[in-house]
Automatic annotation (TrEMBL), chain A:
<dbReference type="GO" id="GO:0016491">
    <property type="term" value="F:oxidoreductase activity"/>
</dbReference>
<dbReference type="InterPro" id="IPR036188">
    <property type="entry name" value="FAD/NAD-bd_sf"/>
</dbReference>
<comment type="subunit">
    <text>Interacts with COX5B; this interaction may contribute to localize PYROXD2 to the inner face of the inner mitochondrial membrane.</text>
</comment>
<dbReference type="InterPro" id="IPR002937">
    <property type="entry name" value="Amino_oxidase"/>
</dbReference>
<feature type="domain" description="Amine oxidase">
    <location>
        <begin position="15"/>
        <end position="522"/>
    </location>
</feature>
<dbReference type="Pfam" id="PF01593">
    <property type="entry name" value="Amino_oxidase"/>
</dbReference>
<comment type="function">
    <text>Probable oxidoreductase that may play a role as regulator of mitochondrial function.</text>
</comment>
<protein>
    <recommendedName>
        <fullName>Pyridine nucleotide-disulfide oxidoreductase domain-containing protein 2</fullName>
    </recommendedName>
</protein>
Length: 539, 406
């Protein structure tokens, strides 16, 4: 009976990153994925002829360039293309655009407020300062503050030194930033509703919190700390959709000798004498390995795949209480022509960027009120992009793929399970919002995929449909992610590791959890990590 | 949200022109031969127009016309204008009489310089503040409690610098009667085409020179008026490269070139107090409270200022731009922010920021390391540098009253 050196549960991008690094270190690695395709939430699928969707994640910025390089992803076809700005449509028939050009950005804001136009520099400075503080932490294992191992102590010292390097005023700013609401934070810089709404959206994406909830300022940071080729904060489209990321990873993995099995759902992790020995698949097949690494979220892993008796009570309780409430849905649309938005000039670059219809923080917060009551937002917040304006590979010429990320969308509808009728009604809410700003929109629709937390959970395995495998609030970050004492990718079961977005530094198509987990595993095996680039310097 | 206006809608189209033209653009475009543009605050500005060397000599020998419209301008008006500006800026505005200009700077509450600029007192309760960076939120927030209005007027007001020994002759020829009576830092209004142009005896060259401000609609006729009058006085249009040489000879600093302004400093240690960039002389601790006062006074008392900006004279003739400054050829003590060979002083000059005590109590045995790229090879030179007072050149004609025709 074959015994693998390591078996990774799940072919999400983190599982694949992890598998790639282990395979390249000389291990014999198997990845098992329950779906018939790979990718998890970084996937491109064709559901109607001629069109390719980014079914879940749709824009790329966070994916670490160090990983792209180490794993030779460009050689395996990965290209990320920066896009230009975007716009918030306003109810009075105008819009507020974001332009990449610094002065165009200012002039655009000046159309609404001369004061806010000139407030942007200070805002950008403060957010950049916070990003520079966070960025170097992404590619390091979070220290365990209760441990006295030299590595933990030196990591803690590193954190402390970075923090101390901020100076008293910045230190206070950092603490506030990590705890305050995005709405309060923006009030310190801007006065105009639509300008605040424009920035606030980064504070709530994927988060079961409203713009007025404390902790949302940090979520904004999480969306700013990425980069496209050194341009920090920039976002881009992966050519071929987000599935191009996982396709390149899978090809790289196979090229280095790794094995992937799809259509193989793991039912249980085999544990004997407190140590992981392998897996049992849904069809009863047993697969043996020295190490098991789970890319599934922490709840799925420990509440579904591991027997309770193998886990300490306090760990179990904390995993149960880990917050990963679903808050978002997704509508993917195939269009037979480019939609028109009469408010937006035809030659506007905003068609190639992200578009929004929520023009005030108040409206966003009302959308959140619906979620709290267990309903999807009647007036939802959409993050809408048309990647085919820059990517010719996802639709036939002249036709387009439109991706709409939708907030808020609850894991259950007023306490009961979603039905197909609910899902269709949710889709209709989204389409009718778009159609309000784009006459004739419905007539262009060729095909549509509507996904609520129910679909996200069923397909990707994201518990409650939470897109980040766990909310990004300060109590669930760094050495507290996913739970205190287990922030270093290890678990209470020997030989069972975690590598998904539930772990530090969290969600998004970033690859850092998968990479950091590989580093820890190789350390435990006393294997070298020379094939892993250190994090790029932030100078 | 402000109500939808046709102005807001019309302004949408700005995205089609990322670098704006100034009100003088048609004239500058017509004279542009090098097509050597740069971005000045979102405007398409000439780095040079025909020959950067010769443009420099136009400043020093004739009259050079330089478009300063992209400079950021604020109109500050109201009965509390003086008190407000005293609260915001470092110098005592009570000492700035109506019809006068002074060079000043302003700081955040921690005493770090937000910008430097010129303050024009156009009338007892009307001012214009000209600077490099944008500060509307800062000015508006500081204005709370004062009976004063602050208006951004960069686009509405066109500006020209006319600099050089024949500049007064050009202005007189153009019919600005009495302009020769302006002393350095005086300003006066003159009629032009049914409107008014403000002329001040100010500039950025260390030479005899004037700056003219007019409503944007009057820009082209003002240019034409000067151009015609200057025909026999050698008037030439110039770009920034030439001006930059002149300003260095004059020892003047440029925000975000020679120091980093506080609202742009991403690295918290890059900010500077006035005393650290040679602007300590502006700080008036006697005039009452102003933004940053407590922090500056405290830093002075504790002796905690860590930097100093100095003028250097460097041996040889290779400009030391962005060179590292060493003490005893070994210890790194600072950085050159700007450097040229000065045609007027016949010396190799530079502005540099040094870490105290270097440049403060230790001023000898300073060196700069120059990497000169010559045909794909760095020639590395270690040259002696001497701290010298600024300005590097002093021209009597700058201050002569009345000024001579050349
Ligand atoms: C709708 C949506 C939009 C998003 N938009 C963006 C975006 O635009 N940009 C961005 O950066 N991030 C975005 N995200 C977040 C990002 O996609 C995720 O955080 C990230 O993809 C998670 O990757 P992962 O590898 O950690 O886990 P996952 O992608 O969740 O991978 C886990 C894998 O494990 C498999 N699995 C689970 N259980 C089992 C089992 N029992 N047996 C076998 N296999 C199993 C799953 O099928 C899946 O393939 C979005 C997420 C969603 C859902």
């Amino acid at each position: 009976m074959k015994k693998w050196d390591a078996i990774v549960i799940g072919a999400g991008h983190n599982g694949l990153v992890n598998a790639c690094y282990l395979q390249r270190a000389g291990l014999d690695v198997l990845v098992v994925e329950k779906n018939d395709w790979i990718g998890g939430a970084a996937v491109s699928r064709s559901l109607t002829p001629g069109f390719l969707y980014s079914n879940c994640s749709y824009v790329c910025s966070l994916f670490r360039p160090e990983i792209m390089r180490d794993l030779e992803l460009p050689r395996f076809g990965l290209q990320v293309i920066s896009y230009e700005g975007g716009a918030v449509f306003t109810r009075d028939g105008d819009y507020l655009a974001n332009y990449r050009d610094h002065h165009a950005h200012r002039r655009e804001f000046a159309r609404f407020s001369a004061r806010d136009a000139e407030a942007y520099d200070r805002y950008a400075r403060d957010v950049t300062r916070q990003c520079r503080f966070i960025q170097p932490l992404l590619m390091r294992t979070a220290p365990d503050p209760t441990s006295f191992r030299p590595r933990d102590i030196s990591e803690l010292l590193y954190l402390g030194k970075k923090f101390a390097g901020l100076g008293a005023a910045e230190m206070a700013d950092t603490l506030r930033f990590w705890t305050m609401s995005i709405s309060d934070f923006l009030d310190e810089y801007f006065e105009t509703d639509v300008i605040k709404a424009n920035f606030a959206l980064s504070g709530i994406i994927g988060t079961a919190l409203g713009p007025m909830s404390p902790g949302t300022a940090y979520v904004l940071l999480h969306h700013y700390m990425g980069e496209v080729d050194g341009s920090v904060g920039a976002w881009g489209y992966a050519r071929g959709g987000m599935g191009a990321v996982t396709k390149a990873l899978a090809d790289s993995f196979r090229a280095s000798g790794g094995t992937i099995r799809t259509g193989a759902e793991v039912e249980q992790v085999l544990v004997r004498s407190g140590k992981a020995r392998g897996l049992v698949l849904a069809d009863g097949e047993e697969i043996y390995g020295n190490l098991v690494i789970s890319n599934a979220d922490v709840k799925r892993t420990f509440l579904k795949l591991v027997e309770e008796k193998e886990l300490p009570e306090i760990f179990l309780r904390r995993v149960k209480n880990f917050k990963m409430r679903g808050s978002s849905g997704k509508v993917n649309i195939a269009l037979d022509s480019l939609p028109e938005f009469p408010a937006l000039p035809k030659d506007s670059p905003c068609y190639r960027g992200d578009m929004h219809f929520t023009d005030s923080v108040e409206r966003m917060e009302r959308g959140y009120d619906d979620w709290k009551a267990g309903r999807w937002s009647a007036d939802p917040f959409l993050d809408m992009v048309i990647p085919t304006t820059l990517d010719p590979t996802m639709a036939p010429p002249g036709k387009h793929f439109m991706s709409c990320f939708v907030q808020y969308c609850p894991p259950k509808v007023e306490g009961r399970d979603w039905t197909d009728a609910d899902r269709d009604a949710f889709g209709e809410t989204v389409i009718s919002q778009i159609a309000d700003y784009s006459p004739g929109f419905r007539d262009r629709i060729v095909h549509m995929e509507v996904r609520t937390p129910r679909e996200l959970e069923a397909e990707v395995g994201l518990t409650e449909g939470n897109i980040f495998q766990g909310e990004l609030t300060f109590d669930q970050l760094l050495f507290n992610r996913p739970v205190p004492g287990y922030a270093q990718y290890r678990s209470p079961v020997d030989g069972l590791y975690m590598c998904g977005s539930s772990t530090h530094p969290g969600g998004g198509v970033m690859g850092a959890p998968g990479r950091n987990a590989a580093a820890e595993i190789l350390r435990d095996l006393s294997r070298g990590t020379k094939h892993m680039s250190p994090a790029h310097d932030v100078i | 949200m402000p109500k939808l206006s046709s102005a807001r809608l019309t302004a949408q189209s700005h995205f089609r022109t990322l670098r704006l033209g100034t009100p003088f653009q048609p004239r500058i475009d017509a004279l542009m031969k090098t097509n050597d543009w740069y971005d000045w605050g979102g405007y398409r500005a000439p780095a040079s127009l025909w020959d950067e060397e010769l443009e420099y000599f136009a400043i020093r020998s004739q009259a050079a016309l330089f478009d300063i419209s992209p400079m950021v301008k604020y109109r500050i008006e109201g009965p509390d204008g003086e008190d407000f500006l005293n609260r915001v800026t470092l110098r005592d505005v009570a000492k700035l009489k109506s019809g006068r200009v002074h060079y000043t700077a302003w700081c955040d509450d921690e005493g770090y310089v937000l910008d430097d600029g010129t303050l024009f007192r156009l009338a007892p309760d009307r001012f214009r503040l000209c600077c490099q960076e944008r500060h509307l939120p800062w000015l508006l927030d500081s204005a709370i409690g004062f009976d004063v209005s602050v208006l951004e007027e960069t686009e509405a007001v066109a500006g020209l610098a006319l600099q050089g020994p024949t500049s007064v002759a050009v202005l007189r020829e153009a019919g600005f009667a009495g302009v020769e009576r302006l002393k350095v830092f005086d300003l006066a209004e003159f009629p032009h085409e049914g409107g008014r142009v403000t002329i001040s005896r100010t500039g950025f060259t260390g030479d005899l020179g004037y700056e003219l401000f007019a409503p944007a609609e009057l820009a082209l006729s003002l240019w034409d008026r000067l151009w015609k009058a200057g025909e026999l006085r050698g008037i030439r249009a110039i770009g920034y490269t030439a001006l930059n040489r002149a300003r260095l000879e004059a020892g003047l600093i440029v925000a975000n070139a020679d120091f980093v302004t506080a609202e742009h400093a991403i690295r918290p240690d890059r900010v500077r107090m006035p005393d650290e960039i040679g602007l300590g002389f502006m700080v008036d601790l006697e005039k009452g409270h102003f933004n940053g006062r407590r922090a500056i006074a405290q830093a002075r008392a504790k002796g905690s200022m860590r930097h100093v900006l100095v003028g250097l004279e460097i041996e040889g003739n290779i400009p030391a731009e962005h060179a590292i400054v060493y003490h005893k050829q070994k210890k790194e003590v600072g950085l050159v922010s700007a450097a040229i060979w000065s045609p007027m002083a016949k010396r190799n000059i530079a502005l540099a920021s040094l870490s105290r005590p270097y440049g403060d109590t230790i001023t000898d045995d300073l060196w700069v390391e120059i990497y000169a790229m010559r045909e794909l090879r760095y020639e590395r030179l270690m040259k002696r540098a001497r701290i010298v007072p600024r300005p590097f050149i002093k021209l009597d004609r700058r201050t002569a009253s009345p000024p001579a025709d050349f």
